[in-house]
């Protein structure tokens, strides 16, 4: 676990609380994207701003695929080690702490010390935005999906679905008008609160077939009738 490696260096997640708020600035050369390398879709929020900046810088250097692989690795690491998020969002990190964290993150990502991702991580650290890294990873994946002509197909179920069921759902949606003729990027999620059934989201469309939704509608109908 990366959080354990940081802890050995004297950075303990338990001593930190909420990330410090800082203005979004100092994105170096990433702030002024050229027309031909701008992000394929508009993203909002701090993580969206940084993800778009990283996309632009990578596109200018013809390093999109390389950056995408590195960012994907970081995103998976952050999701696997939740304590790491507490460390990255710590408001009391010293410059030495930030330097150590950036070095560790760059190693995990396999980033070149003089490369775009290394510089980007340093920029996040300088602006006290390391806590936004997981969001940046998610938003960068969204940008890469748009770049590749993909559209997200989110399937949420009460219990984990088997590969055959997911494949059948993907095939059904791909034949529908909702796919817009694009390649589907399937993301399967589990939410026990649904009780049963599914919620299927594609683009800006949502089909709620969950048991919890049916129960909520039934409860509303009963309350309206009383």
UniProtKB/TrEMBL annotation:
NCBIfam families on file: ATP_synt_delta
Protein keywords: ATP synthesis, Hydrogen ion transport, Hydrolase, Ion transport, Membrane, Transport
Protein name: ATP synthase subunit 5, mitochondrial
Gene Ontology CC: membrane
Record's keyword annotation contains Membrane: yes
Coarse class of the protein's main subcellular location: membrane
Pfam family, one: OSCP
Family named by the database record: Belongs to the ATPase delta chain family.
One of the record's GO molecular function terms: hydrolase activity
Keyword Kinase carried by entry: no
Cellular location(s): Membrane
């Amino acid at each position: 676990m990366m959080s354990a490696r940081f802890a050995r260096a004297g950075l303990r997640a338990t001593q930190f609380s909420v990330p410090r708020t800082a203005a979004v600035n100092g994105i170096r050369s990433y702030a002024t994207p050229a027309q031909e390398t701008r992000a394929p879709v508009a993203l909002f929020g701090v993580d969206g701003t940084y993800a778009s900046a990283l996309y632009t810088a990578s596109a200018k250097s013809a390093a999109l695929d390389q950056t995408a692989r590195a960012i994907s690795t970081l995103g998976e690491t952050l999701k696997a080690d939740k304590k790491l998020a507490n460390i990255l969002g710590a408001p009391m990190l010293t410059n030495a702490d930030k330097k150590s964290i950036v070095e560790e993150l760059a190693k995990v990502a396999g980033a070149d010390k003089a490369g775009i991702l290394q510089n980007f991580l340093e920029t996040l650290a300088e602006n006290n935005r390391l806590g936004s890294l997981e969001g940046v990873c998610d938003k960068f994946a969204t940008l890469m999906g748009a770049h590749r002509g993909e559209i997200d197909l989110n399937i949420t179920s009460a219990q984990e679905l088997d590969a055959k069921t997911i494949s059948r759902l993907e095939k059904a949606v791909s034949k529908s008008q909702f796919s817009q003729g694009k390649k589907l990027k399937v993301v399967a999620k589990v939410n026990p609160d649904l009780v049963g059934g599914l919620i299927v989201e594609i683009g800006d469309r949502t089909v709620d077939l969950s048991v919890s939704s049916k129960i909520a509608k039934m409860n509303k109908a009963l309350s309206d009738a009383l």
